[in-house]
Amino acid sequence: MDISSVLQGGYQHPLSRSWQARRHLTKSMFMYPIFITDDPDASVEIASLPGQRRWGVNKLEEFLGPLVKKGLQSVILFGVPFKCVKDERGTPADDPQGPVILAVKKLRALFPTLYIACDVCLCEYTSHGHCGLFRADGALDQVPSAARIAEVALAYAKAGAHCVAPSDMMDGRIKAIKQELMNAGFANQCTLMSYSAKFASSLYGPFRDAAGSAPAYGDRKCYQLPPQAKGLARRAIQRDINEGADIIMVKPALPYLDVIQDAAELAPNHPLACYQVSGEFAMIVAGARAGVYDLRTMAFESVESMVRAGCTLILSYFTPDFLDWLSDRLLLHSLHIEMRR
Ligand SMILES: NCC(=O)CCC(=O)O
Ligand SMILES: [Zn+2]
Ligand SMILES: [Zn+2]
Predict the structure, then answer these.
(1) DSSP 89-114
(2) Which of 55, 130, 167, 191 has the fewest Cβ atoms surrounding its Cβ within 10 A?
(3) What is the mean pLDDT of residues 247-262?
(4) Which of 59, 106, 178, 251 is catalytic?
(5) Residue of the nearest CA to atom 5 in ligand 1?
(6) A GO biological process this protein is involved in (predicted)?
(7) pLDDT one-digit tens code per residue, 24-36
(8) pLDDT digits (tens, 9 = 90+) for 183-210
(9) Which residue has its alpha carbon closest to ligand 1 atom 1?
């Protein structure tokens, strides 16, 4: 064999295998998406998202306390209101008594070290279930939509959110939010994470089930990106950098690794997030249950591909599992357990 053909000497040991990664997964890379509902005592299983629940504010301490002890460092909140009256402009989104604002305040008080992000969208709060506002002729009304999203973002920032993350995909909303935060003196206290390249994906099904945010009619193809739109994704990322986003996000993650790589190239000076969405999570769990692969091994493989593509932050429903798995992995390394084949 030719001398240049021999590669295996470089990865014979668990430690030398770990050196093959340019960057390593850490607990701090995980942000945990959680669903907050308006029954303060709720703890309701979500059938389509195994192991995930809708939580009321009174349950947050017992739910998150053990995870914070294990090293949970950030969460992103999604409001799931059932009792509110939804309308055309999503009025309940920034209700001071709504579940998100109450949860932010509660979490800030309970867990001073926890980083709290809020998803910002109108679809959970509008009567039509869409993410923006409509003109009388039925077209999306971009400027008032962005203004309304900015108003909601500011309300979350004022409640104490460390980060606001608009997922609505209206044009111009990053600039509108940044400006709104600046005008109110909050721009230097609140991170703006943009769902920059959010694709119209079939992988959001379990989330819509969990959050009750399926549109009442039509779909979101006029504002979320078409799956084949590589160029449009690059333009959206560039636009959001120019409009003042502090973090760029790609969503979903696994089918869009090339877009994550493009984002890493376009935004080399920004943190780069990706969202391993509900359908990706459900698919990995279902495959493991069907005996296709081992759950943990597959979960690692999925998120390591995202880190390899360039992301520095992963929103994932596997976050609680990874807090355990990454502790186990450290232990394995420190014991130098070697599994030669
Ligand atoms: N803004 C959040 C979504 O649209 C869906 C996320 C998921 O499917 O996990
Ligand atoms: Zn939405
Ligand atoms: Zn959404």
Answers:
(1) T-GGGG-TTSHHHHHHHHHHHH-TT-
(2) 191
(3) 98
(4) 251
(5) 204
(6) protoporphyrinogen IX biosynthetic process
(7) 999 999 999 999 9
(8) 999 999 999 999 999 999 999 999 988 8
(9) 167
pLDDT in tens, 280-296: 999 999 999 999 999 99
| Domain spans in the chain, listed from the N-terminal domain onward | 3-335
- Indicate which residue's Cα is closest to atom 8 of ligand 1: 204
Binding residue numbers for 5-aminolevulinate: 208, 220, 278, 317
How far, CA to CA in Å, does 115 sit from each of 68, 98, 109, 193, 284?
11, 20, 12, 13, 27
Read off the tokens for 70: 């294990």
From the options 3.40.50.450, 2.130.10.10, 3.20.20.70, 3.40.1190.10, give the CATH code of 3-335. 3.20.20.70
CB of 277 shorter than 6 A to ligand 1: yes
Mean pLDDT in the chain?
A: 94
User: Tokens 């990874």 sit at which residue?
Assistant: 322
User: Is 52's C-beta closer than 6 angstroms to any atom of ligand 1?
Assistant: no
Select from 126, 207, 278, 302 the residue to mutate for testing ligand 1; criterion: most ligand atoms less than 8 Å from CB: 207
